[in-house]
């Protein structure tokens, strides 16, 4: 997109909230304190995790900015922002989660490779924009399509972003055409976040949001959309973000034996307490978030204070004062769920949380059974240690 990107402006970093924990400066990666996450069902933009693979682009001529749609279609198009804004606008509450969320805890079992995320590499926002299914109709692809007449079965998103893993080329990823063309999948070309124009950190002027799927597929700063026959062959689809068993190491890894990770598994985290926390004896509120991929709801969140021998079910909500019901038409199916329970804690103990989704998927008990060399998808039971004393220390 010649003339639209100002290379000299890559170094001009956006302003960011001082509370963010910076996990990497170049490229910039940061997350908020865990307690901040449960202060609001819709995560404020300032507190939404920042995940980048290269310098943050700046589009400096929005009037000339366009997205080209090419590939295995009969009528390629260039869509300007005004064209996209003319399509019906949808607001979709959806949680985005980095596949590396909770990587730091996984690395304590055995070293892994990647940005050291704690538990806050996710956030829940209301994304505003056009449904990708409507955009694809503009180039002759009907809704609920599995393939195009020319054999296109996947939709590839190519970013303005440049990264070293692509040898200076653009970040890219893809999803199946069947998902992209399904209006019920709620895949968006988003230009708003929480009712405001996207900022640079989150993909200004246009990004893809793929609900229920690991954040790596929600490509920011869209440059082009390609209809292709096979999955995207980019680095982050073929040489990263794949789930390997604990037996695979960097000496015997064969990336071609695994498919790119898409949906994320069921997950929950205690956010009202730190990994090791000091409390007064008596009642303590245990609260946090739970979420599952693929639009699966949260059926249960269980809490244990005796190593998992006995469990107490926590209450769940998305709206204050309204009990959450998994798969209810009134529930936000792509969004996280908050849980809360009050316990009586009189002695030092470990508090454990695990969630069960609406398909009866449950979190694994230990990190060891899901350890993988890239440290992705740590969805093991979340554990915090509480030390009980007469006063806060």
Automatic annotation (TrEMBL):
One of its GO terms (cellular component) is mitochondrion. InterPro entries: Ig_E-set (IPR014756), MoCF_OxRdtse_dimer (IPR005066), Mopterin_OxRdtase_euk (IPR008335), OxRdtase_Mopterin-bd_dom (IPR000572), OxRdtase_Mopterin-bd_sf (IPR036374). Its cofactor is Mo-molybdopterin. It is an enzyme of class 1 (oxidoreductase). Keywords: Metal-binding, Molybdenum, Oxidoreductase. Pathway: Energy metabolism; sulfur metabolism; Sulfur metabolism. SUPFAM superfamilies: E set domains, Oxidoreductase molybdopterin-binding domain. Residues 260-388 form the Moybdenum cofactor oxidoreductase dimerisation domain. Pfam families: Mo-co_dimer, Oxidored_molyb. GO terms for biological process: sulfur compound metabolic process. The keyword Oxidoreductase applies. Its EC number is 1.8.3.1. Gene3D superfamilies: 2.60.40.650, Oxidoreductase, molybdopterin-binding domain. The keyword ATP-binding does not apply. Residues 53-235 form the Oxidoreductase molybdopterin-binding domain. One of its GO terms (molecular function) is sulfite oxidase activity. PANTHER family: SULFITE OXIDASE, MITOCHONDRIAL, SULFITE REDUCTASE. This is Sulfite oxidase. It comes from Cucumis sativus.
